[in-house]
Structure prediction request, 155 residues.
Amino acid sequence: ASRYSRLLLVAGGIGVTPIASIFRELWLEARAGRGGCDEVHLIWTVRLCEVIEPFGAALRAAVDDDIGGVFKVSIFVDGEPLEDKATHQGIPIIGGRPNFVDYVPELARPTAKEATQGSARVPHVFVCGPPGMTAMVDTLCLKHDVSFHTEVFAY
Prediction:
């Protein structure tokens, strides 16, 4: 991950499996003082809150200790009404689906640190999920010249 200045990890449903592993490993490395990224943002869209539970401990750990703001978790729930619920088992949740137009173009803009240091490291998006979501993110990455990798679960 050290070749990337910032990472946006995007998951849809069960596509979180490889994404959560990457996120957790990066978080553990950062906790051990071997972090390579300036920012790691996990965006995961699920239908129901209960789907979050198997990954709850790792997500809560990152929410509780974001390593000085390096790690961010955004979980969107689009299959059940959340009413006034803002968290699920200590993990912040948002109703609906993410608008990736709010995230990918932001990665294309150099941070102040990147602009002043002229870093060769680049932002990167890793997306794993349903074809419609991955195509949307891929299109935005191409449009904004952001490095990306896609995994699609389809049969």
